[in-house]
Protein backbone atom coordinates (compact mmCIF):
# COMPACT_ATOMS: atom_id res chain seq x y z
CA UNK A 1 0.00 0.00 0.00
CA UNK A 2 1.43 3.38 -1.02
CA UNK A 3 1.87 5.79 1.88
CA UNK A 4 -0.78 8.41 2.40
CA UNK A 5 -1.65 10.44 5.47
CA UNK A 6 -4.91 9.16 6.93
CA UNK A 7 -7.77 11.18 8.36
CA UNK A 8 -10.82 10.42 10.49
CA UNK A 9 -12.63 8.88 7.53
CA UNK A 10 -9.90 7.00 5.68
CA UNK A 11 -8.55 5.44 8.87
CA UNK A 12 -11.85 3.57 9.27
CA UNK A 13 -11.49 2.08 5.79
CA UNK A 14 -7.94 1.08 6.67
CA UNK A 15 -9.06 -0.73 9.84
CA UNK A 16 -11.90 -2.49 8.06
CA UNK A 17 -9.49 -3.66 5.39
CA UNK A 18 -6.91 -5.10 7.79
CA UNK A 19 -7.35 -8.72 8.86
CA UNK A 20 -5.30 -8.15 12.00
CA UNK A 21 -7.28 -5.09 13.10
CA UNK A 22 -10.82 -6.00 12.11
CA UNK A 23 -10.71 -9.00 14.44
CA UNK A 24 -10.77 -6.58 17.39
CA UNK A 25 -14.31 -5.46 16.50
CA UNK A 26 -17.59 -7.38 16.43
CA UNK A 27 -19.39 -4.82 14.23
CA UNK A 28 -17.31 -3.10 11.55
CA UNK A 29 -20.26 -0.93 10.50
CA UNK A 30 -20.31 0.68 13.97
CA UNK A 31 -16.73 1.94 13.92
CA UNK A 32 -16.08 5.56 14.82
CA UNK A 33 -12.88 7.57 15.06
CA UNK A 34 -11.49 10.41 17.14
CA UNK A 35 -8.26 12.15 16.17
CA UNK A 36 -6.38 12.99 19.37
CA UNK A 37 -2.90 13.75 18.06
CA UNK A 38 -1.98 16.85 20.03
CA UNK A 39 1.70 15.94 20.09
CA UNK A 40 4.62 17.38 18.18
CA UNK A 41 5.16 14.66 15.62
CA UNK A 42 2.32 12.34 14.63
CA UNK A 43 -1.32 11.63 13.87
CA UNK A 44 -3.07 9.62 16.59
CA UNK A 45 -6.53 8.07 16.15
CA UNK A 46 -8.76 6.23 18.62
CA UNK A 47 -11.00 3.71 16.84
CA UNK A 48 -14.06 2.48 18.74
CA UNK A 49 -17.15 0.36 18.30
CA UNK A 50 -19.85 2.87 19.19
CA UNK A 51 -22.06 0.02 20.43
CA UNK A 52 -19.43 -1.59 22.65
CA UNK A 53 -16.93 0.69 24.37
CA UNK A 54 -14.73 -2.28 25.32
CA UNK A 55 -13.80 -2.67 21.63
CA UNK A 56 -11.21 -0.03 20.77
CA UNK A 57 -7.65 0.47 19.63
CA UNK A 58 -5.22 3.27 18.83
CA UNK A 59 -3.58 3.90 15.46
CA UNK A 60 -0.57 6.19 15.32
CA UNK A 61 0.83 7.38 11.98
CA UNK A 62 3.98 9.32 11.22
CA UNK A 63 3.76 12.38 9.01
CA UNK A 64 6.65 13.20 6.65
CA UNK A 65 7.41 16.38 8.62
CA UNK A 66 7.66 17.69 12.17
CA UNK A 67 4.06 18.39 13.08
CA UNK A 68 4.82 21.15 15.56
CA UNK A 69 6.77 23.03 12.88
CA UNK A 70 4.69 22.19 9.78
CA UNK A 71 5.60 20.78 6.39
CA UNK A 72 8.48 23.25 6.08
CA UNK A 73 10.41 20.93 8.43
CA UNK A 74 10.72 17.54 6.64
CA UNK A 75 11.23 14.48 8.84
CA UNK A 76 11.69 10.81 8.04
CA UNK A 77 8.70 8.54 8.63
CA UNK A 78 11.03 5.77 9.80
CA UNK A 79 10.47 6.97 13.36
CA UNK A 80 7.37 4.79 13.49
CA UNK A 81 9.55 1.70 13.04
CA UNK A 82 11.61 2.72 16.05
CA UNK A 83 8.45 3.18 18.09
CA UNK A 84 6.91 -0.15 17.10
CA UNK A 85 10.04 -2.20 17.70
CA UNK A 86 10.72 -0.45 21.01
CA UNK A 87 7.18 -1.13 22.25
CA UNK A 88 7.48 -4.79 21.30
CA UNK A 89 10.82 -5.03 23.09
CA UNK A 90 9.39 -3.32 26.17
CA UNK A 91 6.69 -5.97 26.30
CA UNK A 92 9.36 -8.66 26.26
CA UNK A 93 11.57 -7.06 28.91
CA UNK A 94 8.91 -5.49 31.15
CA UNK A 95 5.56 -7.19 30.42
CA UNK A 96 2.55 -5.03 31.19
CA UNK A 97 4.40 -1.71 31.35
CA UNK A 98 3.79 -0.65 27.73
CA UNK A 99 0.77 -0.99 25.42
CA UNK A 100 0.46 -4.16 23.36
CA UNK A 101 1.23 -3.78 19.65
CA UNK A 102 -1.34 -5.27 17.27
CA UNK A 103 0.13 -4.25 13.92
CA UNK A 104 3.06 -2.41 12.42
CA UNK A 105 2.68 -1.30 8.78
CA UNK A 106 6.02 -0.11 7.46
CA UNK A 107 4.70 1.24 4.14
CA UNK A 108 2.03 3.31 5.87
CA UNK A 109 4.35 4.26 8.73
CA UNK A 110 1.77 3.37 11.33
CA UNK A 111 1.40 1.23 14.39
CA UNK A 112 -1.87 -0.05 15.88
CA UNK A 113 -1.84 -0.75 19.58
CA UNK A 114 -3.83 -1.29 22.72
CA UNK A 115 -6.13 1.58 23.69
CA UNK A 116 -5.41 2.44 27.30
CA UNK A 117 -8.93 3.68 27.92
CA UNK A 118 -8.63 3.36 31.70
CA UNK A 119 -5.44 5.44 31.83
CA UNK A 120 -4.62 9.11 31.43
CA UNK A 121 -1.47 10.89 30.32
CA UNK A 122 0.38 11.65 33.54
CA UNK A 123 1.13 15.34 33.06
CA UNK A 124 -2.32 16.86 33.68
CA UNK A 125 -3.27 14.77 36.73
CA UNK A 126 0.01 15.82 38.33
CA UNK A 127 -1.04 19.43 37.85
CA UNK A 128 -4.36 18.44 39.46
CA UNK A 129 -2.33 17.09 42.44
CA UNK A 130 -3.26 13.44 41.97
CA UNK A 131 -1.14 10.77 43.63
CA UNK A 132 -0.12 7.44 42.11
CA UNK A 133 0.89 4.98 44.84
CA UNK A 134 2.32 2.31 42.53
CA UNK A 135 4.08 4.57 40.07
CA UNK A 136 7.55 4.63 41.64
CA UNK A 137 7.66 0.84 41.83
CA UNK A 138 6.41 0.31 38.28
CA UNK A 139 8.44 2.98 36.48
CA UNK A 140 11.62 1.97 38.34
CA UNK A 141 10.99 -1.63 37.25
CA UNK A 142 10.61 -0.46 33.66
CA UNK A 143 13.78 1.63 33.76
CA UNK A 144 15.92 -0.99 35.50
CA UNK A 145 14.92 -3.83 33.19
CA UNK A 146 15.08 -1.98 29.89
CA UNK A 147 18.33 -0.17 30.63
CA UNK A 148 20.14 -3.11 32.19
CA UNK A 149 18.97 -5.77 29.74
CA UNK A 150 19.97 -3.76 26.66
CA UNK A 151 23.43 -2.91 28.00
CA UNK A 152 26.87 -4.52 27.82
CA UNK A 153 26.41 -5.51 31.45
CA UNK A 154 23.84 -8.11 30.32
CA UNK A 155 24.33 -8.73 26.59
CA UNK A 156 27.25 -10.17 24.70
CA UNK A 157 29.15 -7.63 22.67
CA UNK A 158 27.84 -9.15 19.42
CA UNK A 159 24.22 -9.19 20.60
CA UNK A 160 24.41 -5.66 21.99
CA UNK A 161 25.86 -4.24 18.76
CA UNK A 162 23.41 -6.16 16.59
CA UNK A 163 20.50 -4.74 18.59
CA UNK A 164 22.06 -1.30 18.58
CA UNK A 165 22.28 -1.39 14.79
CA UNK A 166 18.48 -1.65 14.55
CA UNK A 167 18.09 1.60 16.52
CA UNK A 168 20.26 3.96 14.49
CA UNK A 169 17.88 6.93 14.64
CA UNK A 170 19.84 9.92 13.30
CA UNK A 171 16.97 12.23 12.37
CA UNK A 172 15.23 12.18 15.74
CA UNK A 173 18.57 12.21 17.55
CA UNK A 174 19.32 15.38 15.62
CA UNK A 175 16.10 16.95 16.95
CA UNK A 176 17.08 16.21 20.55
CA UNK A 177 20.68 17.29 20.01
CA UNK A 178 19.47 20.63 18.67
CA UNK A 179 16.40 21.28 20.81
CA UNK A 180 17.69 19.95 24.16
CA UNK A 181 21.40 20.72 24.09
CA UNK A 182 22.08 23.53 21.61
CA UNK A 183 19.44 25.86 20.20
CA UNK A 184 17.79 27.01 23.46
CA UNK A 185 21.13 28.39 24.64
CA UNK A 186 21.77 30.61 21.61
CA UNK A 187 19.83 32.72 19.16
CA UNK A 188 17.63 30.41 17.10
CA UNK A 189 14.41 31.35 15.28
CA UNK A 190 12.20 28.65 16.80
CA UNK A 191 12.98 29.56 20.42
CA UNK A 192 10.15 30.93 22.53
CA UNK A 193 10.08 32.14 26.13
CA UNK A 194 8.12 34.21 28.58
CA UNK A 195 9.30 37.86 28.24
CA UNK A 196 9.15 38.14 32.04
CA UNK A 197 12.22 35.90 32.28
CA UNK A 198 14.24 37.53 29.52
CA UNK A 199 17.08 38.49 31.93
CA UNK A 200 17.35 34.89 33.12
CA UNK A 201 17.33 33.55 29.56
CA UNK A 202 20.09 35.91 28.51
CA UNK A 203 22.07 35.03 31.65
CA UNK A 204 21.92 31.32 30.78
CA UNK A 205 23.03 32.02 27.23
CA UNK A 206 26.06 33.99 28.40
CA UNK A 207 27.08 31.69 31.27
CA UNK A 208 30.34 30.19 30.05
CA UNK A 209 30.71 27.59 32.80
CA UNK A 210 27.13 26.39 32.30
CA UNK A 211 27.48 26.22 28.52
CA UNK A 212 30.73 24.26 28.79
CA UNK A 213 28.93 21.76 31.03
CA UNK A 214 25.99 21.48 28.62
CA UNK A 215 28.42 20.90 25.75
CA UNK A 216 29.98 18.03 27.71
CA UNK A 217 26.55 16.54 28.36
CA UNK A 218 25.65 16.85 24.68
CA UNK A 219 28.80 14.90 23.80
CA UNK A 220 27.72 12.17 26.22
CA UNK A 221 24.27 12.06 24.61
CA UNK A 222 25.79 11.82 21.13
CA UNK A 223 28.52 9.28 21.81
CA UNK A 224 27.72 7.09 24.84
CA UNK A 225 25.61 4.14 23.62
CA UNK A 226 25.15 2.47 27.00
CA UNK A 227 21.67 1.04 26.48
CA UNK A 228 18.40 1.45 24.61
CA UNK A 229 16.90 4.68 25.89
CA UNK A 230 13.40 5.99 25.27
CA UNK A 231 14.96 9.45 24.86
CA UNK A 232 11.68 11.31 25.48
CA UNK A 233 10.54 9.83 28.78
CA UNK A 234 8.63 12.74 30.25
CA UNK A 235 5.26 12.75 32.01
CA UNK A 236 3.55 13.26 28.64
CA UNK A 237 4.95 9.89 27.49
CA UNK A 238 3.57 7.92 30.43
CA UNK A 239 -0.04 6.85 30.98
CA UNK A 240 -1.22 6.00 34.46
CA UNK A 241 -4.06 5.20 36.79
CA UNK A 242 -4.02 4.36 40.47
CA UNK A 243 -2.94 0.78 39.77
CA UNK A 244 -1.07 0.74 36.48
CA UNK A 245 1.70 2.50 34.54
CA UNK A 246 2.38 2.29 30.80
CA UNK A 247 5.21 3.87 28.82
CA UNK A 248 4.25 5.18 25.37
CA UNK A 249 5.72 7.16 22.45
CA UNK A 250 9.29 5.76 22.13
CA UNK A 251 9.85 7.00 18.57
CA UNK A 252 13.03 8.80 19.72
CA UNK A 253 14.54 5.55 21.00
CA UNK A 254 18.20 4.80 20.32
CA UNK A 255 21.27 3.57 22.18
CA UNK A 256 22.39 6.42 24.41
CA UNK A 257 23.35 7.25 28.01
CA UNK A 258 21.13 5.58 30.61
CA UNK A 259 20.96 8.71 32.72
CA UNK A 260 19.02 10.56 30.05
CA UNK A 261 15.85 8.51 30.61
CA UNK A 262 16.00 8.58 34.40
CA UNK A 263 16.90 12.27 34.31
CA UNK A 264 14.14 13.24 31.88
CA UNK A 265 11.58 11.69 34.19
CA UNK A 266 12.91 13.33 37.35
CA UNK A 267 13.33 16.71 35.66
CA UNK A 268 9.71 16.66 34.50
CA UNK A 269 8.69 16.15 38.10
CA UNK A 270 10.75 19.26 38.86
CA UNK A 271 8.79 21.11 36.16
CA UNK A 272 5.57 19.99 37.80
CA UNK A 273 6.91 20.98 41.23
CA UNK A 274 7.56 24.50 39.96
CA UNK A 275 4.19 24.79 38.25
CA UNK A 276 2.35 24.55 41.57
CA UNK A 277 3.55 28.01 42.56
CA UNK A 278 0.79 29.12 40.18
CA UNK A 279 -1.55 26.12 39.97
CA UNK A 280 -1.87 25.66 43.75
CA UNK A 281 -2.24 29.07 45.42
CA UNK A 282 -2.98 27.64 48.89
CA UNK A 283 0.45 27.46 50.53
CA UNK A 284 -0.26 24.46 52.77
CA UNK A 285 -1.80 22.47 49.95
CA UNK A 286 1.09 23.38 47.66
CA UNK A 287 3.72 22.41 50.20
CA UNK A 288 2.02 19.06 50.83
CA UNK A 289 1.98 18.18 47.16
CA UNK A 290 5.52 19.38 46.55
CA UNK A 291 6.61 17.17 49.45
CA UNK A 292 4.87 14.28 47.72
CA UNK A 293 6.82 15.03 44.53
CA UNK A 294 10.11 15.07 46.44
CA UNK A 295 9.27 11.70 48.00
CA UNK A 296 8.30 10.39 44.57
CA UNK A 297 11.63 11.44 43.04
CA UNK A 298 13.52 9.82 45.92
CA UNK A 299 11.51 6.60 45.61
CA UNK A 300 12.00 6.39 41.85
CA UNK A 301 15.77 6.74 42.07
CA UNK A 302 16.27 4.53 45.11
CA UNK A 303 14.08 1.75 43.74
CA UNK A 304 15.66 2.02 40.30
CA UNK A 305 19.16 1.88 41.79
CA UNK A 306 18.34 -1.16 43.95
CA UNK A 307 16.62 -3.05 41.13
CA UNK A 308 19.36 -2.25 38.61
CA UNK A 309 22.08 -3.47 40.96
CA UNK A 310 20.14 -6.61 41.86
CA UNK A 311 19.69 -7.44 38.17
CA UNK A 312 23.41 -6.89 37.68
CA UNK A 313 24.49 -9.14 40.56
CA UNK A 314 22.11 -11.90 39.50
CA UNK A 315 22.72 -11.60 35.74
CA UNK A 316 26.30 -10.45 35.22
CA UNK A 317 26.49 -12.25 31.89
CA UNK A 318 27.54 -9.41 29.61
CA UNK A 319 31.01 -8.72 28.29
CA UNK A 320 31.72 -5.45 30.06
CA UNK A 321 32.85 -6.95 33.38
CA UNK A 322 32.16 -10.73 33.28
CA UNK A 323 32.19 -12.75 36.49
CA UNK A 324 35.53 -14.33 35.59
CA UNK A 325 37.06 -10.86 35.71
CA UNK A 326 36.45 -10.75 39.47
CA UNK A 327 37.72 -14.27 40.31
CA UNK A 328 40.68 -13.40 42.49
CA UNK A 329 41.17 -12.76 46.22
CA UNK A 330 39.26 -9.57 46.95
CA UNK A 331 37.42 -9.68 43.62
CA UNK A 332 33.96 -9.76 45.17
CA UNK A 333 34.67 -6.56 47.07
CA UNK A 334 36.16 -5.00 43.94
CA UNK A 335 33.02 -5.86 41.96
CA UNK A 336 30.88 -4.21 44.65
CA UNK A 337 33.11 -1.11 44.50
CA UNK A 338 32.79 -1.00 40.70
CA UNK A 339 29.00 -1.22 40.90
CA UNK A 340 28.96 1.62 43.43
CA UNK A 341 31.17 3.74 41.18
CA UNK A 342 29.05 2.93 38.12
CA UNK A 343 25.79 3.85 39.85
CA UNK A 344 27.23 7.07 41.22
CA UNK A 345 28.19 8.10 37.69
CA UNK A 346 24.71 7.14 36.55
CA UNK A 347 23.24 9.40 39.24
CA UNK A 348 25.43 12.29 38.09
CA UNK A 349 24.42 11.69 34.46
CA UNK A 350 20.78 11.59 35.58
CA UNK A 351 21.16 15.01 37.20
CA UNK A 352 23.01 16.68 34.33
CA UNK A 353 21.22 15.19 31.35
CA UNK A 354 17.82 15.53 33.00
CA UNK A 355 18.47 19.16 33.89
CA UNK A 356 19.21 19.95 30.23
CA UNK A 357 15.74 18.62 29.46
CA UNK A 358 14.01 20.88 32.01
CA UNK A 359 16.19 23.91 31.30
CA UNK A 360 15.49 23.85 27.58
CA UNK A 361 11.74 23.88 28.27
CA UNK A 362 12.13 27.39 29.66
CA UNK A 363 13.63 28.93 26.52
CA UNK A 364 13.38 26.54 23.55
CA UNK A 365 10.84 25.53 20.93
CA UNK A 366 8.50 23.47 23.13
CA UNK A 367 7.43 24.15 26.71
CA UNK A 368 5.36 21.73 28.80
CA UNK A 369 1.69 22.04 29.66
CA UNK A 370 2.43 22.23 33.38
CA UNK A 371 4.10 25.59 32.72
CA UNK A 372 2.50 26.83 29.50
CA UNK A 373 -1.00 26.50 31.00
CA UNK A 374 -0.21 29.26 33.54
CA UNK A 375 -1.95 32.25 31.99
CA UNK A 376 -0.54 35.00 34.21
CA UNK A 377 2.97 35.60 32.86
CA UNK A 378 4.27 36.96 36.17
CA UNK A 379 3.07 33.87 38.02
CA UNK A 380 4.48 31.70 35.27
CA UNK A 381 7.82 33.46 35.66
CA UNK A 382 8.01 32.38 39.31
CA UNK A 383 7.83 28.75 38.24
CA UNK A 384 10.25 29.27 35.35
CA UNK A 385 12.88 31.03 37.44
CA UNK A 386 12.69 28.20 39.96
CA UNK A 387 13.22 25.60 37.22
CA UNK A 388 16.13 27.56 35.74
CA UNK A 389 17.87 27.75 39.11
CA UNK A 390 17.38 24.08 39.97
CA UNK A 391 18.35 22.88 36.49
CA UNK A 392 21.44 25.06 36.34
CA UNK A 393 22.62 23.84 39.72
CA UNK A 394 22.00 20.17 38.88
CA UNK A 395 24.17 20.64 35.78
CA UNK A 396 26.92 22.62 37.49
CA UNK A 397 27.10 20.67 40.76
CA UNK A 398 26.48 17.15 39.47
CA UNK A 399 30.08 15.96 39.95
CA UNK A 400 29.64 16.31 43.72
CA UNK A 401 26.47 14.20 43.90
CA UNK A 402 26.74 10.85 45.64
CA UNK A 403 23.07 10.24 46.46
CA UNK A 404 19.64 11.38 45.38
CA UNK A 405 19.52 13.47 48.55
CA UNK A 406 22.12 15.80 47.04
CA UNK A 407 19.78 16.56 44.14
CA UNK A 408 16.75 16.93 46.40
CA UNK A 409 18.63 19.26 48.75
CA UNK A 410 19.03 21.73 45.88
CA UNK A 411 15.33 21.43 45.12
CA UNK A 412 14.47 22.24 48.73
CA UNK A 413 16.92 25.14 48.91
CA UNK A 414 15.46 26.76 45.81
CA UNK A 415 11.92 26.13 47.03
CA UNK A 416 12.78 27.87 50.29
CA UNK A 417 14.13 30.83 48.31
CA UNK A 418 10.83 31.12 46.41
CA UNK A 419 8.86 31.13 49.66
CA UNK A 420 11.13 33.63 51.41
In summary, what is this structure?
With 420 residues, the protein is α+β, with helices and mostly antiparallel strands.
Looking at the structure, what is the overall shape?
Answer: globular
CATH architecture assignment name of the largest domain: Alpha-Beta Complex
Counting DSSP E segments of at least 2 residues, the number of strands comes to 10
Q: Give the oligomeric state of the chains in this entry, treating copies of one chain as homo and distinct chains as hetero.
A: single chain
Strand content: 5-15%
What's the name of the CATH homologous superfamily of the largest domain? Aminoglycoside phosphotransferase (APH), C-terminal lobe
Provide a descriptive summary of the structure in words.
The radius of gyration is 22 Å and the shape is globular. The protein folds into 2 domains: 105 residues, Phosphorylase Kinase, domain 1, CATH 3.30.200.20; 300 residues, Aminoglycoside phosphotransferase (APH), C-terminal lobe (Aminoglycoside 3'-phosphotransferase, Chain: A, domain 2), CATH 3.90.1200. It has a 5-stranded antiparallel β-sheet, covered by helices on one side. Strands 6-8-9 form a 3-stranded antiparallel β-sheet. By secondary structure, the chain is an alpha+beta fold. The model has no long low-confidence stretch (mean pLDDT 96). Helix content is 51%, strand content 11%. α10 runs antiparallel to α11 and α11 packs antiparallel against α15. It starts with 9 loop residues before the first helix and ends with a helix. The chain contains 15 helices and 10 strands.
